[in-house]
Amino acid sequence: MIVLDSKVPPGPLETKWDHHRFSEKLVSPNNKRRIDIIVVGSGLAGASAASTLGQLGYQVECFCFQDSPRRAHSIAAQGGINAAKNYQDDGDSVARLFYDTIKGGDFRSREANVYRLAQVSTQIVDQCVALGVPFAREYGGQLANRSFGGVQVSRTFYCRGQTGQQLLLGAYSALSWQIDRGQVTMHPRTEMLDLIVIDGHARGIVVRDLVSGAIRSHVAQAVVLATGGYSNIYFLSTNASGSNVTATYRAWKQGAAFANPCFTQIHPTAIPPSEEYQAKLTLMSESLRNDGRLWVPKQPGDVRSPDQIPQRERDYFLERRYPRFGNLVPRDVASRAVKQICDDGRGVGPGGHGVYLDLSDAIAQQGLEVVRERYGNLFDMYERITGEDAYKMPMRIYPAPHYTMGGLWVDYNLMSTIPGLFVVGEANFADHGANRLGASSLMQGLADGYFILPYTIGHYLATTKNEPVPHDHAEVRAATARVTDRIERLLAGKGRRTAGSFHRALGHIMWNACGMTRHRAGLKHALQTIPPLRYEFWRDVAVPGSGGTFNQELEYAGRVADYLEFAELLCHDALHREESCGAHFREEHQTPDGEPLRDDDRFAHVAAWEYVPNDQPRVHKEPLVFEFVKPATRNYQ
Amino acid sequence: MKFILNIWRQKGPAEKGRFVTYEAQDVSPDMSFLEMLDVVNQQLTLKGEEPVAFEYDCREGICGSCSLVINGMPHGPERGITACQLYMRRFSDGATITIEPWRARAFPIIKDLVVDRGALDRVMQAGGYISVHTGGAVDGNVLLIGKDRAEIAMDAASCIGCGACVAACKNASAMLFVAAKVSHLASLPQGEPERSRRAKAMVAAMDREGFGTCGNQYECEAVCPKSISVRFIAMLNREFLKATVAEPGPQAERPSDPHAESH
Predict the structure, then answer these.
(1) N or C: which end of chain B has fewer CB within 10 A?
(2) Cα distance from B88 to chain A (closest Cα, Å)?
(3) ipTM, 2 dp
(4) Chain B residue closest to A211 (CA)?
(5) How far is C-alpha A120 from the chain's CA centre?
C-alpha cells in the first residue's frame, strides 16, 4: 500500500529549505567512503548528481546507455537556463521566479519544491561559470540575459543556441574529474532493465551490457534514477532515438508511484513531419515567436504560394484570439491553437499539418541582417531539413511532443515511494506542474543534481541501516530472471513485423487520443486498442540476432515493449483528470470560446498511480495545498 | 530515388570485415541519410538478417553519436554537419554510396559501423575539467569576461566529441579534439590555475591512447561538423610549450591529490 507523505518541512516558505538542511542528519566522512550509490543516467541531473556525490566521498557507480556520458539528451536543449539573479535590475527575484513557475504550471505543483528551485537557481549559474561554461557575455564582461516564454523579466542565461550542450559538458567535466579520482566508476553502453528491491528498500539494479549482451546485477545502499522523460511514446518527438521510459517504468512495477503521467508537453514550433519514414521531429527555438507571426490563409484549401496571399486574406490566428499576448502566448496555448486550425482543415503544407511562421515583417522593419544575426542558424537548419529558403518563404511549423512533466512521484527529499530510490531531473514529477515554462528544465535538472539530492540522500543513508546484499540474494536472482525471461521472449517473436512499426502504430494511437487534446471517448477507445497491439507485438515482433551480442534491434524492442504497457497508464491518468489544466486539455472541460476550465475543487491534487499486478492501476491523491499563493485563472486573452 | 550501398559489415572486434552491397529502393529525397539506412535495416530485419549496426541518438547534429564515413568523407560530402543532418536530396538518383566506420587505432570496431570512442572520454578524464567543488562558487559576475574572449571560448567549446577529426586524419590524430578543450578552458579565467597541468596531462593521455601526431594537413577542420578551426591547434601547441618550458622537470601526469586524506 502506497502512502504519499510529501515531507514538506513546516515554517515560512523562505526558510523551509535552510531549516530542513540543518535538521537533516549527516553521514560522517569516514562512513561515506564505505557507501555505494548507483546513479542511472548521465544527463544534467545524473552527471551533476554523480559528480557531486563522488566529490562528497561516496563510491558512485554511474550508468548510461550511450557510448559516452556526454551524449545524454540534455545536450540538445537550445534556449537557456533561468536564474533569479536580477542582473538586469528589471524586478526579478526568487519570489517572482517561484510565482512564474507555479503559475506557468497551472497550479499543479508543490509550493515548497518550486520555491526551493527558485532559491537554488542563482547558485546553479555561479557553479556553471566556475566549471567553465562559456555563457554569453556583454561587451563589458557581464553575463548576458534574454527573455523567454512570455515572462516579463529577462532572466535566461544562454550559450548561443547550445545551452544544454554547454551545461552538460560542464557537468560531464565535473564527472570526468571524479572518474579520474576513482570516486565514480562509469559504465557506458549499459542499460538498466530492472530494479532490485529488498525488504522494501531499493538496493540495486539489473543491467545489460550493450556490447557483450551480458546481464549483470549491481547492488548499493541507494539508487538514483536520472533517466529523463518519455515523449517518445508518441513515436515522433523532439527526443533522441534512445530516450525511453524503461527505467522509471520498471521501478513503477516494483512499487514506485508514478505521478501525473498524462502531463506531457507539446512544443508549438517544430518542423512539420514530411515523409513516412521520418524518425524524429526537429525543434525550432521558441525565440522565433519573438519576431515571427503565425498565420494561415483565411480560405481553407487556398493553394496559392504564401507570398501571393494578400494581408487581408490571412488569418493571424494567435493575434486574433489572444490580442494581449499575441504570438507570445505560452507553449500549451499556442500548440492547441495550431492544432485546432489544422483540424479545421486550414493547415498548410503536406497533409495540412502546418501553419506559417512568418518573419517577413521583422525583416522589413529591422532589416535582413538583424534577423540573420539573431536567427541565422535556425534558418539554415530549416533549409537543410526542408530544402526551402525561409528568407524568401515563411517557415511551416507544427507542434511536437517535447517534454514530460509527469514522472515518478517523489517527496521533498526527491525520494520515491520506495525508500532508497531517489529520482531527479525530468524523470521525477516534481516542479513543473501541468506545464513547463521555457528554460526551466535545465534549471531543475541541475538543481536536483548539484544542490538538492546530495543533501537529502545523506539523511536517508545516515538513518537507515542496510545490511550488505550478497549477489546471490533471492531478490537479486528474481530480478535477473525477470530480465533474462523478457529478453528470451523478445527473441522468440515470429518475425513478421519490426518493433519500429509497432512503435509507429502506438504513437499514432497516443497522438490522437492523448496528445494535445483529450476526451473521454477517445481515451476509452485507446484503452481498448492498446492491449491487442501489445498482444500482436509479443507474437509477431522481429528481433534478429541473439541476446549475447551487440544488438540494437533487441534494445529498441525492449523499450517499445515498455511503451506499449506504459501507454495505458498515461490514458488512465488522462481519463481520471476531468479538468483542463496546463498541457492537459480535456475537450469536455472548456469555456464557450475554447479556453481551458480548471477544476480546483476536484483536481488540485497530484495523481500518483500504484502498480497492481493483473489489475488496473490504482490512483492515490496528494492534495496540493496553496498556503502562500492563490491559484488564479491563467488568462492570455 | 534508388541507391546502391556498399556497407562495411563486421561481426565483432576480432572478426574480419568486408563490404556488402545493398540496394535502397523508393527513397524520398526528403529522407535523412540515417532514415534511408533505417529503411534498409527494416527490410533486413524482416528477412531475418542482422541489420547494419550504426550509431545515432539525437538526430539533430548535437550529441556526436553519428560516426559514418560516407564516400570517403567523415559525415559525408557536406561541410559543417553531422551524418544525421545529411539529406538524400544531396545525392543523385542511382548513385553508389560507400559507407564505412571511423577508422583509427584508438577506435576499435565493435560491430559494423560502430566503433569504441572511449579513448576520447579517457583523454577528458586526464584533465579536461576545472576541479572545483559543487557549492561555494563566487557570483558569476565577479570575474568579468570580455565578449570577444567568451566567444572564442564558445567557438572551441562547441566540439561534440564525435571523433570525425580523428577519422579524417591520416595519422589518426586527436589534436583538434584536445585543442578544442584546452583552448576553451585556457580562454577563461576560471581555467587559468590548471592550464599548464591540463595541457600536459591531456597531450600525454592522447599519446597513451594511440592517437597519432598532427601532420598539419587540416583535414580535421574540413570535416568537423562544428567547423572548429585549426587555429586552436596552434593555441594548444603554445599552451603545451609554455607548460613544458615554464615548469621543467618530469611531466607530472597528475599532482598529488589534495583530498587524499579524505579518501
Answers:
(1) C
(2) 10
(3) 0.95
(4) B110
(5) 20
